[in-house]
Amino acid sequence: MNATNTLFKPHKRGIQLEDEALAKTKMEVKFATILLDAIDEALSALGQNVKLSIYFHLETKFSVPKQDIPDRIEDFSNALEQIFGQASRQLEILIIKQLHRKINLNYRWAGPNWLVPNLTFEKYIKLARLSVEGSGKTQGTTFTINLPLEPKIEERGENV
Questions:
Q1: Distance between CA atoms of residues 65 and 83, nearest Å
Q2: Is residue 159 part of a domain?
Q3: Which of 72, 68, 121, 118 is nearest to 94 (CA)?
Q4: CA dist., res. 33 & res. 6, Å (int)
Q5: Out of 48, 58, 76, 111, which residue is the most buried by the measure of CB atoms under 10 Å away?
Q6: In whole angstroms, what is the distance from residue 53 CA to residue 47 CA?
Q7: Lowest mean pLDDT among 20-24, 52-56, 57-61, 84-88
Q8: What is the pLDDT of residue 149?
């Protein structure tokens, strides 16, 4: 067993393996696998050769290998935008749909009906990660998105 790949905590009789940290690591791996599957399925809609070409460019031009995408979702999103421009949003929506189908993540908006939450690709992936890693479930988690009741007003030091 490679000591650099496991998490340990100090113990009075030496070093003891920290089970809780390993369990979290398993959930992180589970989410990464689900996310990569969703990305694969979404990119497959463009064709096998296009999908392989995208992965090739992500790794060579943007230094984002496929296995690093779950940990570098912002870099992945930026790279897609540089490759596809505004059309990258449609790819992100396909990825979200595939991921949603796999984990069935539900959101409940607690703000006013007339205000639409600004839920970006990165935020959705972050909430999905929290859902899977936090609950230990890959199906049926509900998140409530709250809006502060009173907006904060920052003073700039000068009164106008």
A1: 15
A2: no
A3: 121
A4: 19
A5: 76
A6: 10
A7: 20-24
A8: 37
pLDDT band at 151 (very low <50, low <70, confident <90, very high): very low
Q: What are 24-59's pLDDT values in tens digits?
A: 478 788 899 999 999 999 999 999 999 999 999 999
Does a structural domain hold residue 158?
no
The alpha carbons of the chain give a radius of gyration, in whole angstroms, of: 20
What residues pair up with 9 in beta bridges, in sequence order? 16
- 110: confidence class by pLDDT, cuts 50, 70, 90: low
The pLDDT assigned to 115 comes to 66
Strands in 29-141 per DSSP E: 106-109
Name the region of 47 (left: φ>0; alpha: ψ -120 to 50; beta: rest): left
Beta carbons within 8 Å of 119's beta carbon, 6+ residues apart = 107, 145
Report residue 154 as tokens.
Answer: 């920052």
CATH number at residue 49: 1.10.1200.200
Asked if the structure places residue 2 within a domain, the reply is no
Write out the residue range of the structural domain in which residue 129 sits.
15-145
Instruction: Give me the number of domains the chain comprises.
Output: 1
Q: At what angle do helices 73-84 and 121-135 cross, to 10 degrees?
A: 150
Round to whole Å and give the CA distance between 28 and 130: 10
